[in-house]
User: Fold these one by one.
Assistant:
Number 1:
Amino acid sequence: MHHSSLGQAMPATSRRTVLRGLGGAAVLGAGIPLLSACAGSSASSDPKTVTVGSNASDAVPKKGYADVYAAFTKQSGIAVDINTKDHNTFQEQINTYLQGTPDDVFQWFAGYRMQFFAAKGLASPIDDVWKTIGGNFPSAMHDLSKGQDGKYYLVPLTTSPWAVFYRKSVFQKYGYEVPTTWDAYVALCKRMKKDGLVPIAYGDKDAWPAMGSFDQINFRLNGYDFHVELMAGKASWTDAKVRKVFDTWAETLPYHQEGAVGRTWQDAAQTLVAKKAGMYMLGMFVAQQFTDKADLDDLDFFAFPEIDPAYGQDTVEAPTDGIMLSKKPKNHAGSVKLLEFLGTAQAEEIYLKADPSLIAASSKADTSGYSALQKKGYEMITQAKHLTQFMDRDSRPDFTSTVMQPALQKFIRDPKGIDSLLSSIERQKKTIFASG
Amino acid sequence: MSSETTTKIPEAATVPPPGAATPKRRVPHGHQRLLTRRDRITLGFMAGVPTILHVALVWVTALASIALAFTTWDGIGFDSIQWVGLQNFKELFEQNPQFWPALEHNVIWFVVLIAIPTPLGLFLAVQLDKKIRFSRVYQTAFFLPVVLSMAVIGFVWQLVYNPDTGLINSVIGANEPGKYIDWIGDPDLNLWAILIAASWRHTGYMMILYLAGLKGVDPSLREASALDGANEWQTFKNVIFPTLRPTNTVVLVVTIIEALRAFDLVFVFNKGAEGTELLSILVTNNIIGESSRIGYGSAIAVVLLLISLVVIIPYLVATFRKERRA
């Protein structure tokens, strides 16, 4: 009876279905690692298509890039296959993406983050492209596009400066003047507080905005060269110069919006939109929060005030985005053509028509279509003696994300105990920079 | 040789006494009918595929991450793996300012879940077990948070706690300069704020577990204790609760697991900023993303694994011992 129940009561068909299901599961299991690899490549070995890995997932940049690629296809007859991923996801998966089968070209950032992948052999040098497009860019952009080996790896497209943003109408109403020195800046904060405003809007829930504040004070106080050394892990975080940055910063912390660690930058920007805050130090993308045309026209900015006259306001933080060539592009010739096109002023103008919150990286691009804000930003960048990217683009991302982000959050919440914080940063920095 | 043996077999079969031969012949014969070739292949697949999957996805990966804990690796190419011995652990225990708080928060998470939502869930279950009106409605209402994904819960509560526009600060007027209560950023508050959200969900979970346990309690026990003149509390304390022992074990294990794997809620809430660091979040921050400190992150994961083992092994030993006795 027992054997019959096992051999017969279970009909063959059902056993087969079970097997089929199992086979399916096995295929599925085997498919998981493949899936991630598939995502990057949409089969294109034909010379008429170039694939692009894009992190421009927000509506405005997405449309801007689509317009640029459409113009390229029209001009060259080469189709562009865009593979867009969520901005943050793209960033988080960049390691695996570049090691798998990446698209022919991919969008990425200038600075250390580009040099890192170039040094790892995950991107191809594009010196030949720069022979054609080199004349379109100012020398600062040339430097930003080179790897540590001196070869070019990136075609810069757009940039935008970090500065102190304010409402013209608010400054007019209270009779404030744009501060150019640190003392004037602190005095203005005091006045704003007396007038019932939040002097400096602030939100650091996302953990990166505070890195921008550090950058500004550091290169104003200690100069560009020291900033670069510090970011590269060469200078020490326990140096008295760094300690002074935090002391200077702490001087203005009482004038920063309270509860910053629990607030997103968008919410902080809303206090500036609502005219409850006097100033906000952020990138020019803060303009995205000004959805009303009248509010946007009222928005203006000034360069972060001078702290040490020896350095003045010579450095501007201007994160630059661009496009790189992957290690083994399937369509090399087509990719080079696309990169050459993207390096022209024409391509950048098409992009900026769709996204007016940024500035063209090329000095040849036509600035007549710029808004007042863009024009000012453009001037600021072209007149800068030095350009920096941003702490997490100028230094190792593993160091900035696992050490600096929590440390700076801790500091702005409770500025006491700077010394122990700095020695902790320095200890962790040493081990991280010592590894690979 | 082969022809000889085949010819000998029928002879050999006929020679032994019939009484002994019949069962001997029938058993192999029966086995053959029981498992045909196809059956054996089928069974091989049924046992083999899950085994392969299990070994590949659980054991290989677990052992690989233990091995990686003693290396440093940026995740690019296998040749960049460097053996560093115990350095990751040394760094973790001595230098990482987030490690000890994270461990502490995992423990607090467990203690709070056991101390507040678990008794609360038991209380609700006892009330619902009394066959009151609309019992199903209450059950659904309390159980609803368990059905929601943790990420959704984190998002909803983050809206409640938002310092500027959130429900709480707006209602009590704490969203103005000078009166701020920073539920999300203040390390003295944020863990408790999140634990309220976690408890809100856990209560429903515990309620369902206990309700299932209570349904299994023999009604004659209640009758007997009522006949003995015990009041409701005495009945519960001396009769019902002791019979819930198996449920309590499950509750304990489930709560420990919840406390150790707590991640999604906090990650959505504030990404594990100061005050809400958790081991799972440290692992993620170090491994996922551009940081790619895979060796270091694995070391944290190994610590998490060891803690889990310390908790799970005694449980398994106890369970097996009970089974052997039974």
Note: The two ends of chain B are 54 Å apart (CA to CA).
Number 2:
Amino acid sequence: MTDALSKLLSTRDWLMADGATGTNLFNMGLESGEPPEFWNTDKPDNIRTLYRGAVEAGSDIFLTNTFGGNAARLKLHNAQGRVRELNRIGAALGREIADASGRTVVVAGSVGPTGEIMAPMGSLTHELAVEIFHEQAEGLKEGGADVLWIETISAPEEFRAAAEAAALAGMPWCGTMSFDTAGRTMMGVTSADLAQLVEKLPNPPIAYGANCGVGASDLMRTVLGFFAQGSERPVIAKGNAGIPRYQDGAIHYDGTPELMAEYAVLARDAGVRIIGGCCGTMPEHLRAMRAALESRPKGPRPTLEDISSKLGAFSSASDGTGGCGHDHGAPRRERRRSR
Amino acid sequence: MADEDDIILSELNDEELVLQMHDDLYDGLKEEIEEGVNLLIERGWAPYDVLTKALVAGMTIVGADFRDGILFVPEVLLAANAMKSGMAILKPLLAETGAPRMGKMVIGTVKGDIHDIGKNLVGMMMEGAGFEVVDLGINNPVEKYLEALETEKPDILGMSALLTTTMPYMKVVIDTLKEKGMREDYIVLVGGAPLNEEFGKAIGADAYCRDAAVAVETAKSFVARKHNQPNA
């Protein structure tokens, strides 16, 4: 049996994913610090509105409101006992909206990081991480999610643990990391590292890529880094709508719908198969992206210069992958000896 | 650890040993750091000199490479861990000898924010730089900060937020300090992924710190300035 996402990918050159979850929910009155997952049960109509917003703006895939729905995160709100329930309902609401759309829309069960540092640096063991992700995966599966969508990960160990949980739950999955520190993840993973990592997994994802991070330019540079590894696996790009700015006591993302449309076209031309937004990406951004993807002719794969001239400058000179003869952006300090 | 080319720390002279400890901190070698600290103490070094010349100087190199995108969080955590074990030996000795202190910081993530990896890193790097750090943990309302400022009397207040939705709360804390006439008593440093310098200025912080290494540099320069004031 082929999953809904693979089927859709086999019939289309590109698919559009959704935009922001948090930004949209805060606009509906979610309080700062309140776990968004609670709204799956407390305000299901708002969650339906969130999902419908993406579907009506042309998304082929949308993510469930379950990003922080793992026991490690929910524990901080004394809700570690509600993992199964909140994920099941978050996915079930998605199933309802997708099935009512009259076309094939993929419900992707969002799985965010645990927020903990894994052993040996931190205290979270692989076994426990797998257990945490597995519990969430079972809830999402029960609620009718088509695929698991593991996102915003920064540590390779955590990515592997989540992949293993997907296998335990018997679910197809996609996985993206957040490259927000000089072109790498917080834990130092480069785009090349991730491209190689996914191919070594016993259950590789349907698609992999980058989400969140620092603006659209950096995200596109990361994407070019994936393709430089020569992988045939579909690539995902879900970039933020610009950078958050503080104005009149509130936060606004500075990426316009036009900029996000430009980003979507560049991503498609680069070869990205699944294109969406992340923080700050609202339905109006998605509509502009969809319209541009459908109307603008396909161009050649953009260069780094094309990207920075159309989307703005990169946040760092290098992204830690090759390009100037060595593997790292800057050499590690010279060692006096090695042990 | 029995490689043939292994260096025997006790056979190194002081200068070589200190350089070796910088390397060992860089590599996060906890046991070697403990051994190095004990050796220097046995050789009659003042605990304060061990702290500053061996540990703090070593962590400064780690911090610089972290800032420059050469080292990343995992390496820094290992280095900080090694530093901590060296500090555990030095702490009682420092107290006995009444060594000068770099300064004290109270730090915590703001109300609504439960993301603490960045805050923990800053805390570790500040300790690595010789500061005393009081960690208030996550999700701190303004009252909690005020209470800690009263009881701890720190030089620095550090606030962290990962979410665009929680970062405005930093302004609430700073505004409260202003209302109470306490704002000028502290150096206020803010940090977190979605922040930037412009935001730091807009809410009235002394500085925005891009990462843990920058936080340490900024803290040092502000504390130095504060100490240079005639009435400080």
Note: The domain at 9-97 of chain B is CATH 1.10.1240.10 (Methyltransferase, Methionine Synthase (B12-binding Domains); Chain A, domain 1).
Number 3:
Amino acid sequence: MLKVVNLTKRFGGLVAVNGVDFSVEEGEVVGLLGPNGSGKSTVMNLISGALPPTLGEIDFDGQRIDRRPPHRIAKLGLSRTFQLVRLTPSLKIRDNVILPLAFGVFPVFGREAEKRADAALEQVGLAGRGDRLVHDLNYIDQKRLELARAIVTNPKMLLLDEWMAGLNPTELRAAMELIAGLRDSGMTILLVEHIMEAVRALCPRCIVMSAGTKIADGSTDTVLADPHVIEAYLGKAHV
Amino acid sequence: MSKQFGILAFVVLTAAMAALPFGIGEYGHGVLVGMMSYIVLASAWALFSGPTRYVSLATVAFFGIGAYTVAVLADHLPFGAILVVAGVIGLGVALLVGMATLRLAGVYFVIFSFGLAELVRQLITWFETSVTHTLGRYIFVEITTVQIYWLLLGLAVITLALRWWIEQSRLGLAVHAIGDDETVARHAGVNVTGVKLALFAVSSVLITLAGAIQAPRWTYVEPSIVFNPTISFITLVMALLGGPGRMWGPVAGAVPLYFLFEWIATRFPDQNAVILGLVFVAIVFLVPGGLLSLIDKWRARGSGEQSHA
């Protein structure tokens, strides 16, 4: 589904992502882990097209997508959420969700789009809120809305950038169930997450980055026990 | 308000506006032309700048291009053909400028758009003084003031109808999303650069035509007359007063401000610029969301609930 080869991103002198290779198979849920500043979000931004890579190649669903603008990548069936919630507050809640439908590969607009948007809102727990404004939503509901916008087009692959950060335990449980439901429907998911409980529950496989390079890739239990990974998170003394 | 009623009200209003020149004299016709010109300018400006929030000060660049096209071609082509040529030139300049600048964000775009008007003016001045050796041209076109008014009214109808159509269509979602967060719009599949360019081009062509249509009113033009930056600022303030995010906002701002500015210009001709400046400042401080947003606030207070257009 997704194949990343020698992916590199330099910001001036800083190498944020340095020769990263990995692939994600169809239907897989993969966790992308690493300490703050290790380049996880940059990898997400390179895949979604928000940033152009300095070097390397990204293939998605059999097509090369590095160098493509994000609107063309989105049309191929790749959706994402953002590390800090990003919504369009001048549009009603329902219209936030209709936006990607109206500009998908097969544009849907009007009654049909409203129906599908309302179904997506219901799926994330925002049933009946479509006519309200974004400002009426609290933080968790804004995150829900962002997810509804990402899944309404029924994408082949979903990138979640710390989507579960900042939730309380009850909200976290609901959020994990939501993601599990998407996984069970066959959606391929790559998620950046710091909440280990969620990673262990949702991701059979993890990739770990540190200082821009990949340091581990494998089954979640093995990877989290890897001395290199522990060193990257906690320092040498703990190995 | 139902859609049918809205369309009917629009048709009735247009007919009433078309009948306005009957029974008033030549001075009244001139006033009507001025008012309708600013209705077009403010509405066309807001077509692009309202939802996308790209503040453009290039209004007078296109307005002047329209007027100057008429000045150059008046003796060679019928007026209708000149309008077509002016529209095409406006479109060409808008696409060229748009491709170069719509990637600029925020204040850089404002500065550039202001500079563009000055650049066009200087280019034409240079061309006229060093190539044709005539700074200033006379325009003789057989057209009455009332006919100019009707043409501008038609242009205003086209501008408002376009805005209405955009707000109804998926393009409306895209432009509002662009105004909020371009990254979100891109990731939702919107070709942000394409949408901005298209909207900027349409807006610029309408402004160019507004300049071309009323060029015959001047009889004599030179760059300093038709490229007067005050036109850009007045257009901007009118749209801001009414609220550029809504279809009728610019109209609601243009009509009262036009009469206010006319009154100021005749009453205090020497302090004109100072008073204009004070009005600008007052609008930004007192009605930051535009006049039409006040109606929403009153309604919200009445029903105890927030409403949204």
Note: The beta strands of chain A are 2-11, 14-24, 29-33, 55-60, 63-64, 78-80, 157-161, 188-192, 205-210, 213-219.
Number 4:
Amino acid sequence: MPLLENGQITPDRWHVAVDGEPLPEGAVIVPLERLEEGLARTGDAPLGVAIAPDVDVAVLRTALPRLELVAVTFPIFRDGRAFTQARALREHLGFKGEIRATGKPLPDQYEFLLRCGVTTVQTERAEDISVWRQAHEIITIAYQPSTLHERPQGLGLRRFLG
Amino acid sequence: MSTDTTTLPVGRYAYDQVDRTFLSQRVAQFREQVARRVAGDLSEDEFKPLRLMNGLYLQLHAYMLRVAVPYGMMGSDQMRALAHIARTYDRDYGHFTTRQNVQFNWIRLEDTPDILEHLAGVDMHAIQTSGNCIRNVTCDEFAGAAADELLDPRIHAEILRQWSTLHPEFTFLPRKFKIAISGSPHDRVAARFHDIGLVARPGPQGRPVFDVFVGGGLGRTPIIGVKLRDTLPEEDLVAYLEAIVRVYNAYGRRDNMYKARIKILVQALGVEAFREKVDAEFALMNRADYRLDPAIVDGIRARFGIPPLNAPADAEQTLAASRKADPAFDRWVRTNTHPHRHEGFICAVISVKPDGGIPGDITADQMDLVADLADSHSFGEIRVTHMQNVVLGHVRKDQLHDLWRKLAAANLATPNIGLVGDIIACPGLDYCALANARSIPIAQKLSARFANPELQERIGPLNINISGCINACGHHHAGHIGILGVDKRGQEFFQLTLGGSAGRDVAIGQIIGPALPEDETVDAIARLIDAYLVLRHDNEQFLDTYRRLGAASFKDAVYAPA
């Protein structure tokens, strides 16, 4: 599926580094193992990094000011570690750039992704965009704080989404 | 928004329009997911976590729907809705679970959106009754009523229910996650057999504080939870729980579902290293964002109806006279009631375990009767217990005899609470795809064998727990006598464990010897109990006799030649 942002298809300006090949020109997402190589590039082309689910995001602390994107991944949709990584990037490391969910998240997880700080989704799944949009719009109330700092509703920890 | 406590349902959180909107959105979402599954857009593998998040399991013969009863509390209107579902969509009965929920065992997938819609009409749902998420928060069945209670844990149970509902970060955890909360020094929630167990007591300025236990559980690897934090202030409750579950989500094993519970992580890291990780996470958090302000707690508290406890001055004498006049009633009062904080009231336990019956099964007609009796005798409030029984929490003492007669007429007055007949059993091979053996027939045979109420009372407090496989849904490790079904070359065998306890004197039962064939198990337990009656000192309880003497004396009785 093409890149998804705010429930809409959006053009993707990022290139993903290919194993064993030099880094391409322009905006590039490197795997964590090639982060040093990415940081060593000359010029000011945007740099992003892709991390595996078992990575402690604290390892990105020093590099983060120079990164515009962090890609987290769902090797299977049931593996929810990327939720915690995204939230830690926002809450503990103050990351303001793009957090991209890759791999195989389900449309039914879209709202959870957004509330944990993910901004774009590049899924290997084939659903129509409308399924994702609907998943985003169907529930308008939440019962706990999130990285989005939604408007409190007034009772308990309730808040309005969207 | 009304804050008139007389119009709010007693003992549980009253939904308002916002909560109802949320629930109807959730039903619409599931209806759409079912449609996508039926159309083939979702594979069974993809649909599975979605249906599990709505309490829908695929069992041996049919779908099973598990309806949430938050901290075991429901109203008479809700019980009637369950009776309606039993009649309309199931086979005229439902089943109370050890997580204080209700299960329906014969459900059709296509009916579930309509069932959930009907439930939503009475502010009920099946959210997070299964799946790898935070499950129904359980609570003391005598909460808000018990004489020994220090504070009512239901307010914080409700806060945790809301906080965990569709939690964006914690809905795809390594494995299921169970929280229990108690407000009494007498642990009636098995706090140390939970992923997180909370024991609340009053702290400074009248605000509660919590002792936090973590990493307990039964299942294949029974482990007693360890105390992670003493005296946690109320305002940090949500933040601290977030920190624990984040550490679990990040580091819990995902390669082997049998080693994925938080207890395995706590054991693997060691409690000190685990605590360090939680403390580090807690220190990093912006606590203002997660602060549980006293005003938030009080706002939730204001949504709970409070029963107006007024009883005539002679309520106690009336009860005493009825007990004197009616020995059968007197026995039931001894076995099936619990002291209330108000002198004119008492808590009544309705046994859902008739002699020879299936533990926890209740018919639609019985559900309706319980609803009517809750209206007439307990402010419309009903509690499901983790022992798979039902409690009416606030019964006037002078009206207890009337209640008992009406219960007895519906076979709901078996005087066996806490006794041999009060057996916990999992659904076993009769329903469950995981089971090795049938738990229910053993429970029925034991219950019938010890049906004599005088004998049961003479034997005294004795918890028998039966699991049909090592997943331990019948909590056999926590039973004074635990029975575990195993498969031996295609035959059902049962292994006995002794000395388990889920209370404050928490212990894991120990295997006594080789597993017994199905047809010898009940006789062996009868010999075991006979041996106890001979060996005990005065009124010594089974657990104490076992602890004094050890397994050897009982082993001879169990394995005595027939």
Note: Residues 17-39 of chain B form the longest helix (23 residues).
